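Usage

Read records sequentially. Each one opens with the input sequence:
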Amino acid sequence: MIVPRALMDYLRAARIPFIASWGAVRGSASGAHIHVGLPSPRISVRR
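and closes with the structure output:
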């Protein structure tokens, strides 16, 4: 989808921290989402 990718491009260009998740995150989200801001200590980032 173009809108989420454009948002992520903007956030990167503006050096705003974010995490994008394309699937469910147990205990946090039922589907794809973008969390703007510093990562929550409750979840670990996988690359």
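Summary fields computed downstream for this record:
- The mean pLDDT is 78.
- Residues 12 and 46 are 18 Å apart (CA to CA).
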